[in-house]
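Database export, one record per block. Field names are fixed; values are copied verbatim from the stored entry.
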Amino acid sequence: MTPSTTVHSPLRLYGRSGELTILETLLGRLRAGDGGALVLTSPPGLGRTALLRQAAARYLGGYGGPVLYASAAPAEQRLPYSGLHALLCSAPGPLPVAPDTILRSGITPGGLLGLLRGLGAEQPLLVCVDDAHAWDADSRAALGFAARRLGAGSRVAVVIGAADETAFAGLPALGLGPLEDDAASALLDRLTDGTADVDPVVRSELLREAAGNPRLLAGLVGRLTPGQLAGRVALPYPLPGAEGVLDAHAGQLEGLSPDTHALLLLAAAAEEHEPDGAGADAALLLRAGARAGLATAHLDRVLFAPAGATGALQRAGSRVHFSHPLLRRAVLHRAPPGHRRAVHELLAGLLAGPGPAPLSALVQRACAAPGPDAALAGQLEAAAVAPRPHGERSAALARAASLSTDDTLRAARFTAAAEQARLAGDTGRARALLARVGPHLAGGLAPYVRGMLALRDGPAADAREALLTAAGLLAPHDPRRTLDALFCAAEAAWDMGDAIAYLDAMNRVPVAAADRSMAQYRAGMCAVLAGHPDRGHALLRCCLDSADRAEDAGELLRAGASALVLGEVEAACRAGARALAVVRTRGPEALLPHTLEQLAYAELRTGQHARARAHALEGLHAARRTGQRNSATHLHAVLALTASVEGPAEACAAHADAALAGAGPHGLAQAATLATWAVARADLAAGRPGEAAARLRPLVRPGPGTGHFATRMLAVPCYVEAMVLSGRADEGAEELVSAVEEFALWTARTTDPQVPAQLARCRALLASPQEAAARYEEALAHHDRAGGDFERARTQLLHGQLLRRLRRTREARGPLRDALVAFERCSARAWAERAGGELRAAGEAVDVPDRSGPGPLAGLTPQQQRIARCVAEGATNREVAVRLSVSPRTVDHHLRNVFAALGVRSRTELARLLDRGGGARLQDRDEKNRADP
C-alpha cells in the first residue's frame, strides 16, 4: 500500500503544544516499528479534528507513511460496519478484503486486527478516526478491540477522536481543555489578520463568550462586521456565530426519547434565572415535569440515576447541571421558539407566588416574551435590588434593558446592569454591557462605571479623567456616586504618584455631601500633602478613632489608609482585618482584592511577613478571578517585598517583574516603587550592595522622576546601607546626608515604631567608627521598644559587620549570633545565610543550610568559600572586599589559594565548576582584575 495523498496540511494550532508533543512521540515510535493507540476526547469545537489532521499530515508529509483517515457520518450510525467501510475506503491501494465485502458481511474484531497488522507489515501504518462516538456500534467495537492489542512491534498506531472515552475504555486517553487566554488571544489575532482595529472591549467580549473554544471563537469573529470589531457599531446580542458549535453539541443528543428531550429543555430553561454555574433546582424540575405530563418514573430515572440522561445531566445534591455549558445552550437553540416560550411560561407559573412575582418568575416571563415589553421591563428593574446578589441584579437589569422600548431607558438599564456586574467582580461582562450603550445616551453613570473599571483594570490616568467627568455629570442628582467618583479619582492619582492631581480631586469633594468621617479623611489627607502634617495628622486620627464603630467597608478602608499615613501600622492591620470581614460577609466581590492588598501591605509594615504573604496570595487569586489587573500588579509588589525577606530570590524577582510589567503600561508608580525596593532589598540580602544602590538611588533622590511620594522614604534605610556597603558613601556623601536629613524630618512626623531605629541605624552607617557604636546602641534601644525581629536583626548584622571590620571579632560574634537567630525566627533565609557567613568569618562555627551544598568547596575554609561564591557570581576583587569587609589584597591572596585547591585557572572556570553561569561576563571580570587587582 502506498502513502495516501488526500490529507492536506492543516493551519497552525494554538495552545496545543503539549498535545502535539504527545502525538509526535506516538508517530516517532510508529516510525521505529512500535504501534500504539490514543483517544483524543473533548466536547465539540476544542480541536479534536485539527489535531487528528495535524497528526495525519505530519506522518504523511514528514515520514511519508501511509494513513487511513475517516470521519463519522451521523446519518450512517445505524448502518452496521459503515464506519469501517469509510475507513478502509480511504486506503490509497487495493486491500486484502474489499471494503464493500465488509459492509455486506461484516468483519470480526480479530479479523480487523489481522487486517491492520497485515497492512502495517509492509510499512508502518497510521489510522485516524474522527468523531468515532458517532460510528455504528459494530465498527466502534471492532476498532476498540484492535486498538487495545496494538503495541510494541505491531507497526500500527491508531488515533481516535471522540466526545468521550466510554466506547474505548482501556485505551490511553487525552482530554482536550479550553485554550488558555494567551493562546485564545493569539488565535483571535490570526482570525482578524492581526489588525489593530479590534476594540479592546470587543476583544474581551469575544474571548469571554468563546471561553477557550477555538471553533466558537472563529464562528463569532466570522459574523461580525469591521465596524463591530472596531467598536464603532454596537455588538448584537446575543452574539451570532455559535450555531455550528451548538448544533454539534445538540447532535450528541440524537436518539433520545421525546420525554427526555422535554426534560432537558425544562432543565435548560430552569437555569435562566439562576446564577451562572448554579444549575437548576431538582425539585422545580420534578414539579415542572409532572405539570408537563412526564411520567414520574422517567423523571426519577433521568434526574437521579447515576448516568443521568446519557450523561447530559449530572446531579449534585439538590442541583442539576448540564455536563457542559454549551450543551445547555444547544438544547435551547434547537427547541422551536414557541415550544421554548411555553416552557418558560410553565416555569414562571410555578415560581410565582400569591403576592408580587419574585425575580425568578419575572426572568422566566422575560424569556417567554416574544418582543419588547415595557411593563415587564419595569417590574424586572424594580425587583433587581438588595439583598439580591449583584450578579443576579445585573442579569435582571440586562433583561429589562432588552425588553425596553425607550432608547434612553434601555441605555440606563444596560449601564446599571454593567455597574452591578462590576460589583459582582465580572469585569468582562461589565465592559460588554457598557459597549451596548450609545455614547449620546450614556449619561453620568456610564463614565462612572468605566472609570471604576479602569481604576482596577486600566491606565490610572484614564480612570482619573473618567471619574472626574462622571462626578461633574452626576453632581446635580446623585451625591453618593459623586463622592465615590471623586474619592476614587484621588485614589487613581495616588496610584500614579501624582500628589497635585490627588489634591485636585480631593478639593472637588463637596464637603456638605460627605459624612463626618469622610470629611475628616479628605481634610486630613489634603493637609498632609499640602505641607501641614500636624493639622493633617490630627484630622486623620479623628477619622481613625471614629472607625471603632464603623461597619462600612469603605469607611474601614479609609481608616486603614489614615493609620498608614500616621504610621500607626498596628491600627492599620486591625482596620484592614475588619474591612476584610465586612467584604467577605456582605460584599461586594469587586472590593475583595483591594481590601486584601491594603491589609497585606499593613501587615508587611508591621513585620508580619508570612501573614502578609498569605493575604496577598489570596488577593492575587481574587484579582485574577475578577479581572482586576491593577490590583494584581499591586499585590505582586507586596509579594515581592515579602519574598525579599523570606526568599527565595527567584520568587522576589518573578513577583517584581510581574509588578513592573503591569505598572508601566497603566502608570502605577506606587507598585513600581515597591517592586524596585523589593529587588534592591533582595540584592542586599544576597550581598550585592552595588546593584541595590543603583536600583534605589532613582527612588530616593529629590526631584522629578523619583519614587512614589508616599513610599520613597521607606526605601531610604536600604539605600544608605547599600551605598555604604558598596563603598560609595564618599562619592555620594552629599546625597546621602540629604536623604538622611529628609528621613529624619519624616521620622518626626510618623508614629511608625520602626522608623526611629532605622534613622539611628542610618546615622550609625555614616558615622565614624568611634561614634557608630553609640548610634547602633541607640538603634537597638528603639528596637526594644518597637519589637519586630527582622529590622532588629538587620541592625545587629550591620553592627557585627562593623566590629569585625575593626578587627574586634570576639565582640562581633554576639550581635552576629543574635542576628542569625532572629533571621531564622522570622524565616528570612537569605538574610540568615548572610549573617551566618559573617559569623563564620568571625571565627564561629555555624550550622546554616548552604544553598550550594558542600560540593567542590567542601575542602575550603569558610572565608575561601565565601570569596569563591562571590567571584563565581561575577564580583570583582574590590566588590568582594567591600562585601566581606576585607582588603582587596586579602581577597587576591585567598583567591589564589582557591584556584590552587580546586584546580582551576580562571574565574570563568570557577563559575563553571560551581554551575553559576555567567562565563562571558566573568571573562570581562578577569581582564578587569588583571588591570585592577
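Remark 1: The two ends are 74 Å apart (CA to CA).
Remark 2: The chain is about 65% helix and 5% strand.
End of record.
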